[in-house]
Specification:
Largest sheet: 9 strands, antiparallel
Strand content: 25-35%
Number of strands: 22
Radius of gyration: 30 Å
CATH class of the largest domain: Mainly Beta
CATH architecture of the largest domain: Distorted Sandwich
Shape: elongated
Number of domains: 2
Number of helices: 12
Mean pLDDT: 81
Structural class: alpha+beta
Oligomer: single chain
């Protein structure tokens, strides 16, 4: 391969990754100055009902439409019920019987502080609220209504697979039992709201879910792997999903119906999602009550409960890490919340293969090594052809140098003579570039797999590598990579240009410095790939030299 091509490919890769990191660090954030609210900031999403806003009292108005009175936060001074399972330590507020303050007991914020766990749905920052809305003239428990609980604490007992937590609300002629079903080892939560009509007339209403997202933004760092991803809201309409910032929702509030969709708040590696039942036409809407708060709501169809009868509403919640197998089993498209960017078409099958290998070897570092070997074998025919071209370039290097000296003052004649030599020796100078061109998308796709896949979050390898998704703490892998790249340059044709020779001498050092802050798993991939390339090129060079 022409050494200049190698340099430009390396520079292009570094520029792309650096630009992406710079955009996250210093690019436009979700919120700047206070935002003027449009007049249609609270769209109607139903002919008979609309979701309440955060902390608002539902007020019956003309036409049977319930409109919200906006407050920043609901009353949270009411008692809270603690629920402990093998994956959760959370609280359910008796106000609205809504889940709040979810601690993920198996996910520390930092590897070196295992006692400091990840907390989702933090009061004042984010919220996942659920409730019922009744048509005008009847009562229903919203996320502001106060429920009663039979106990102040619940725990998933050893040997039990599920835990049910039920809270009750009593209104005028209607009783509602709100039941959460927690399952061992899982982050999807079943929610059932059973309405019993003890009045003399029919009761009609719908269930809703509402997500509050905080759009204040976060400080981002190139070396903090947990600050790379999009933080905001997403909505899946049954076919595709869109990410939304507060500015997006101010500019164009949501107001449409969709089937088999869901709403979620996402951050790096974690999400809180509400998933309405499949097959129902759900009305989605959004509001932006302040310059740091955005709300996305989902209202299911109205059901009628006859006097003396009971009807159960159901939906799924998902609060926890973005475990792709669990999300796939919970709802269609939920795994898309793991955002691999424009290389998703490569990253998704790569993660599937990586996860499959991990299922056999039980170590993500070994899985990366074996994945690298498989990729190398897959592209071996192209690499072998390119390697032969590189080896032949080495053998004709002295003759190329003679041509350059002979025609140093006649560039057209020099180029013509070099092309005749290439043709005579059946050398394609560009053939050596093909493996690197193919390798770049694979490299970038693996970069996003390591950054976005929670399965690899804080995953250990061996020895000093305790987290493959963050940088090598001792920079040993980048140093090994520099040594391997140095050997690789020695196996390539030597450029007759002294300046280019110096550049190629320092290239391994430059690359290793950039790679110092990349995830250790990505550097591991590059090290293994480079070592395999060196071994392959060394063997091909020997074969070509013997043939020559």
């Amino acid at each position: 391969m022409d050494n200049r091509v190698l340099i430009w490919m390396a520079v292009a890769m570094i520029w792309l990754l650096t630009y992406q990191a710079w955009q996250r660090d210093y690019g436009p954030q979700a919120v700047a100055a206070p935002i003027e609210q449009p007049t249609n900031a609270v769209p109607s999403v139903s002919d008979s009902i609309a979701p309440p806003a955060l902390g608002g009292d539902v007020v019956a108005q003309s036409g049977g439409i319930a409109q919200p009175v906006l407050d920043e936060e609901p009353n949270t001074n009411t008692p809270k019920v603690r629920v402990v399972t093998d994956v959760y330590d959370l609280y359910i507020d008796t106000t609205g019987a809504s889940i709040r303050e979810v601690t993920l007991v198996n996910y520390p914020k930092r590897k070196d502080k295992p006692e400091d766990k990840m907390v989702l749905l933090q009061p004042g920052i984010t919220a996942l609220q659920t409730g019922l809305l009744a048509t005008a003239g009847r009562e229903a428990p919203t996320h502001d209504s106060v429920y009663s609980a039979a106990s102040q604490s619940y725990e998933l007992k050893p040997g039990a697979d599920t835990l049910e937590v039920t809270m009750n609300w009593q209104g005028d002629g209607v009783s509602v039992d709100k039941t959460y079903v927690f399952t061992r080892g899982r982050y999807n939560i079943e929610l059932k709201q059973t309405v019993t009509n003890i009045g003399d007339t029919d009761w009609s209403g719908a269930q809703y879910s509402q997500l509050k997202g905080n759009a204040a933004g976060t400080k981002r760092s190139m070396v903090d792997v947990d600050s790379y991803s999009f933080v905001g809201s997403i909505l899946y309409d049954g076919e595709s999903y869109e990410k939304y910032t507060l500015k997006d929702l101010v500019k164009e509030p949501l107001a449409f119906s969709a089937t088999n969709g869901w709403i979620a708040n996402i951050e790096h590696h974690f999400l809180s999602a509400a998933i309405p039942p499949r097959g129902e036409a759900v009305k989605y809407s959004s509001r932006t009550p302040s310059d740091t708060t955005m709300l996305i709501s989902a209202v299911a169809p109205v059901l009628t409960v006859a006097s003396g009868a009971s009807v159960s509403y159901s939906q799924q919640l998902f609060v926890g890490p973005k475990l792709q197998d669990q999300m796939e089993q919970t709802a269609e498209g939920l795994e898309l919340s793991v955002d691999y960017g424009f290389l998703t078409i490569i990253s998704q099958p790569m993660f599937w293969l990586l996860r499959t290998i991990h299922g056999f070897v039980g170590n993500w570092g070994l899985a990366i090594i074996l994945l690298t070997v498989l990729i190398k074998l897959l592209f071996y025919p192209l690499a072998e052809k390119a390697g032969r071209s590189t080896a032949k370039m080495r053998t004709v290097a002295p003759r190329l140098k003679q041509i350059q000296e002979r025609y140093k003052d006649d560039k057209p004649a020099q180029s013509k003579a070099m092309m005749e030599l290439y043709k005579k020796e059946k050398i394609n100078p560009a053939a050596g570039c093909l493996p690197l061109v193919i390798q770049m998308p694979v490299f970038l796709a693996l970069y996003w797999v390591l950054i976005e896949s929670v399965e690899l979050r804080q995953a250990p390898f061996f020895g000093w590598i305790t987290d493959l998704s963050s940088r090598d703490p001792w920079f040993i892998l980048p140093l090994i990579m520099a040594g391997a790249m140095f050997l690789q340059t020695k196996l390539n044709p030597v450029s007759p240009d002294p300046t280019m020779q110096k550049v190629m001498t320092f290239m391994p050092i430059i690359m290793s410095v950039f790679f110092m802050f990349f995830p250790a798993g990505l550097v591991l991939y590059w090290v293994v790939n480079t070592v395999l390339s060196v071994a392959q090129q060394w063997r091909i060079n020997k074969v070509v030299e013997r043939g020559a």
